[in-house]
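Incident log, entry 3
Record: Rho-GAP domain-containing protein (467 residues)
Problem: checksum mismatch between cached and fresh output.
Input:
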Amino acid sequence: MYPILPDDLASDIQQFVRSDFARQYFSTHTTGFLFRRRVPVEQMMAWQKAPLTSPLLNLARPLHKDAVKIFKVIQRLMGDREREGRPNRLPPPPPLPPSSDGAQSSTLNALNASTSSLGGGALGLLEEERWLLGEGLTHGELRDEIYCQLLKQLTGNPTTESVFKGWQLLCVLLITFPPSKNFESYLRGFLQQRTAQQEGRVDVMAKYCLKRLSVVAKKGPRGKPPSVAEIETAADAAFNPSTFGEPLDAIFRLQERTYPHQKTPIVLPFLADGILALGGTKAEGIFRVPGDGDAVAELKLRIDKGYYTLAGVDDPHVLASLLKLWLRELCDPLVPDELYNECVARADDPAACVAVVERLPTINRRVVLFVVSFLQLFLDARAQAATKMTSANLALVMAPNLLRCGSESMAVVFTNAQYEQMFVHNLLLHLKCDAVDPDYVPQHGLGAVSTAAPPRTSRSRSRRMHG
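Fresh output:
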């Protein structure tokens, strides 16, 4: 079960063996029938074909059975283990409460719709993957165990295809839940060591995972497991960048060929004009009332595939929720960290608030101008009467999407929230969006994109289609 490791592989994981995490959290494994010998961590953290008989980490006894089962699922997902007959459908664990705008809800409708072309074997594996993700969400103690088992199977793995599928699974884990702070530093080191490994395109996935690790460490776990469609999108995201959760410049580069003259990410006018087309200026609670979570997630996936169409969407709240989600999930905040404190400190000074916008990087500034000018359409007296959303209400719900407090202190976050709202409120009332950037004047109501752009095709290899 635990073979002798080559010297180069053994040295590759010495960093982990010497870490405080390994000494404190690893369980003791033994081998042999008559003379029980302790298995070194170096061997425990190397790929193996055989199943585990106990967890890698010290876990509560009731979780041991789940940990062993999780390892078998990881082996099947990576193609290292045959499936044991046709598995029963694995239901997700009970969902945690969703976020206020429903953005964390995943889609069972999209799940069923998006898998109609999958074979039973592939669908069964994806269902097992959802079960694994659900276990990590339900039992926080299992998260490090799951990451640890996956890194083990990526260390010294002799099969290129298995390694590729393992990295795809890691991409999915990193949109679902973070490792603990104790394990995060080792995972980061593991990823950094592999950013130069070009074989099997590991370098591309390692660099992508490094970015996702930073994001998920700040955001924390999802409310419930991603849908099958979301899993498939996340698995290939290193090669097919998302419109969501990426740096602004990367999103801009992604659309340059299709929309060469667009000065803001195309998703903004698509969603904004869609909100207007669906009567958003007359919708009570617009930007406050969440859209249906399933519909939000389904439209998000559609956009990520390059289809900018409102077909089947008739609720402006869905688009408003997705607009907030896009802003909130940007890899870097719209207002850079170096300007955040000034926003808070000068929030009561309208001129200072406007001056901050003028100093933003070009793409950031144009996004702010677009969003603020769009929100200003809702300040019309008739719109306010219909939506019951005043300028103060809009500032309250939009501030967390435009400004991002980097402090880990809840007291600081809570205190700063009122100043963030004041800053956004001053922009809504005083920012003249057509007079800030001589090369860009935001326009609205020109019509949402009605024809779908050519969908982006995956450049990665076909994913786990073997039963």
